[in-house]
């Protein structure tokens, strides 16, 4: 099942949350488009723009506050929330100790990192309280976030107060912390944030500096969940497992391992066995453990660790459609059947270990059927930026039946490893065809097969003769330089081609997000940064053109003018013979100088041609996916 952020959907709250009893308030941040925010007595300012009457941030760092309130020494005065929130983002940014993702941390020694984590927790008085959180701890390479989202939704449907900690965030850091399925509100976030910040700041020393970013965010998660008295905390490992900041959890209720693959090799090792060893580090004595099926090299390591701890490691088979009993998973893709199955096993184990299974179900459900609460949870879980479809609200906001412009639909998936790229390609191949058929059926009752052709190593545009619609599939791509695009791009092309799906064009663009700065949903987004280094994007373009043509068509020594601007909109329709290297773009691909300019260019293309339908796959980086979502939200 594909969940789409749709225009003027009156049931959007229930569709996203999957729970009719959850109270939500709607915010109109887009013309004719509805975004959901929590409505809670303790979070009455959820719109993030109302002035907080009487709210005193006495715990806020005076140094940070001084940056936006220079006219007063009294930090207990009233502040407008956006300014206060941006100040918290500045404070978080100061904790970033690496210049890039694969850089070396200032704090050396991973064991020392965990020792320091324990000291931070003790300073905050959380040492004993963490044991009462009744934690589900999940590690893995792929599917960690999905599995955790399924777990949260299932147990919330069972009536429990849930806390969910995941990473990374896409638009706003508060996405990492969910309470009862909703992102923590700004007011509560700021209260917990500055409480943690000031207690830690007051206790720093030469051998105990402020924690790096992810360690602080992890400590903050424990603080939030303890303070909010959640019944269950679902904790996603950040990186690896054994030496991850979350592994200060000594006695979780149950542990899970999702699918393992080759990722973060600069930290975890360059073999599957080494990576599996890190993931197995979250397993604990006398704590039930579950895993999805793994390649033999990984499974041997997991099983060996389980044997050392004298615990059974149960391997969970993917769910079947029969067991789902016509329920459709809210997260799309066949790979989600494995993630959902692991979540089901983790939740069953949690319910039994905490004495809640018999109370809720009286052993009425065993192997053959899933409880109704489980099925509702599996159909309601949400996770932004993974197999997500967003119909551009600006283009599709015009009322009436008259069609004034074409269609622009974004398919977003933050795949950045070979395995996840394969899953992304399979999802897009199915979803793009499904959406095409839905759209064409609304135009004509009789739809002919769309014509596809691969001629001279390029794709002709898909033109449906019956509806007179032109369908273009566009790749919008970027990845970190720690990734290997020579593996990712061919994997994407080949997997899509095996399903008969081809890209008309590929656009390579730099992300907006910087690894050295934490921003929020209200942060300013520059449309263009002059002098931006696009050498990495040109490298991606060379790999793409080589993948499509089977040979190098770009001179490695060619100095392409990065400031030449955007290609004309005719580029979308042009054939190979019409362009050359001197034009900076080719029939198959182009480098655009900024993401906001790219989005506007795509919008202009569909505005001027009502017959044009663009399906844009955004992938390669969660940063890129988050940036696109932020831009769509800021319309």
UniProtKB/TrEMBL annotation:
<keyword id="KW-0436">Ligase</keyword>
<keyword id="KW-0067">ATP-binding</keyword>
<keyword id="KW-0547">Nucleotide-binding</keyword>
<dbReference type="InterPro" id="IPR036565">
    <property type="entry name" value="Mur-like_cat_sf"/>
</dbReference>
<dbReference type="InterPro" id="IPR001645">
    <property type="entry name" value="Folylpolyglutamate_synth"/>
</dbReference>
<dbReference type="InterPro" id="IPR018109">
    <property type="entry name" value="Folylpolyglutamate_synth_CS"/>
</dbReference>
<keyword id="KW-0479">Metal-binding</keyword>
<comment type="pathway">
    <text>Cofactor biosynthesis; tetrahydrofolylpolyglutamate biosynthesis.</text>
</comment>
<dbReference type="InterPro" id="IPR036615">
    <property type="entry name" value="Mur_ligase_C_dom_sf"/>
</dbReference>
<comment type="similarity">
    <text>Belongs to the folylpolyglutamate synthase family.</text>
</comment>
<protein>
    <recommendedName>
        <fullName>tetrahydrofolate synthase</fullName>
        <ecNumber>6.3.2.17</ecNumber>
    </recommendedName>
</protein>
<keyword id="KW-0460">Magnesium</keyword>
<keyword id="KW-0554">One-carbon metabolism</keyword>
């Amino acid at each position: 099942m594909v969940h789409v952020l749709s225009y003027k959907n009156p049931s959007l709250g229930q569709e996203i949350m999957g729970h009719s009893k959850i109270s939500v308030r709607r915010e109109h941040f887009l013309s004719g488009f509805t975004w959901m925010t929590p409505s809670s007595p303790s979070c009455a300012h959820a719109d993030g723009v109302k002035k907080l009457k009487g709210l005193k941030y006495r715990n806020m760092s005076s140094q940070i506050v001084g940056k936006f309130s220079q006219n007063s020494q009294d930090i207990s005065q009233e502040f407008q929330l956006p300014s206060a929130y941006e100040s918290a983002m500045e404070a978080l940014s100061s904790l970033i100790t690496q210049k890039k993702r694969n850089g070396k941390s200032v704090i050396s020694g991973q064991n020392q990192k965990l020792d320091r984590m324990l000291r931070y927790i003790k300073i905050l008085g959380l040492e004993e309280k963490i044991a009462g959180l009744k934690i589900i701890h999940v590690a893995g390479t792929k599917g960690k976030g999905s599995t955790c989202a399924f777990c949260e939704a299932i147990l919330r449907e069972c009536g429990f107060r849930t806390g969910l900690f995941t990473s990374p965030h896409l638009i706003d850091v508060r996405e990492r912390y969910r309470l009862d399925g909703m992102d923590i509100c700004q007011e509560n976030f700021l209260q917990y944030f500055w409480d943690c910040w000031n207690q830690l700041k007051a206790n720093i020393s030469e051998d105990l500096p402020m924690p790096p970013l992810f360690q602080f965010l992890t400590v903050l998660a424990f603080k939030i969940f303890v303070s909010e008295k959640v019944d269950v905390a679902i904790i996603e490992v950040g990186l690896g497992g054994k030496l991850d900041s979350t592994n200060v959890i000594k006695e979780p209720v149950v542990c899970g391992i999702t699918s393992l693959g080759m990722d973060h090799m600069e930290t975890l090792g360059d073999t599957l066995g080494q990576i599996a060893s890190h993931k197995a580090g979250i397993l604990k004595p006398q704590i039930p453990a579950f895993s999805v099926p793994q390649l033999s090299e990984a499974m041997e390591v997991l099983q060996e660790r389980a044997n050392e701890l004298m615990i059974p490691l149960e391997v969970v088979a993917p769910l079947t459609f029969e067991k789902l009993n016509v329920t459709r998973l809210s997260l799309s893709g066949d790979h989600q059947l494995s993630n959902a199955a692991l979540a089901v096993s983790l939740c069953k184990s949690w319910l039994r270990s905490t004495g809640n299974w018999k109370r809720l179900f009286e052993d009425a459900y065993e192997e053959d059927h899933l409880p109704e609460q489980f099925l509702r949870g599996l159909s309601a879980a949400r996770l932004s930026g993974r197999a997500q479809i967003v119909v551009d609200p600006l283009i599709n906001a015009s009322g009436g039946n008259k069609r004034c412009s074409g269609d622009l639909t974004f398919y977003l998936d933050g795949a950045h490893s070979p395995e996840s790229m394969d899953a992304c390609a399979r999802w897009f191949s199915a979803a793009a065809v499904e959406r095409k058929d839905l759209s064409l059926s609304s135009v004509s009752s009789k739809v002919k097969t769309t014509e596809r052709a691969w001629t001279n190593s390029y794709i002709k545009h898909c033109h449906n003769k019956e509806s007179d619609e032109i369908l273009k599939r566009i790749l919008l791509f970027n990845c970190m330089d720690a990734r290997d695009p020579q593996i990712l791009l061919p994997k994407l092309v080949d997997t899509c081609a095996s399903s008969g799906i081809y890209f008309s064009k590929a656009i390579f663009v730099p992300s907006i997000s910087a690894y050295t700065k934490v921003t929020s949903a209200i942060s300013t987004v520059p449309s263009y940064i002059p002098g931006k280094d696009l050498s990495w994007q040109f490298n991606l373009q060379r790999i793409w053109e080589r993948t499509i043509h089977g040979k190098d068509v770009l001179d490695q020594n060619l100095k392409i003018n990065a400031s030449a601007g955007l290609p004309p909109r005719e580029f979308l329709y042009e054939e190979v013979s019409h362009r050359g290297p001197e034009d900076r773009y080719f029939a198959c691909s182009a480098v655009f100088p900024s993401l906001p300019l790219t989005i506007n260019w795509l919008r202009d293309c569909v505005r001027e041609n009502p017959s044009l339908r663009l399906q844009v796959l955004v992938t390669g980086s969660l940063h890129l996916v988050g940036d696109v979502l932020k831009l769509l939200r800021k319309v």
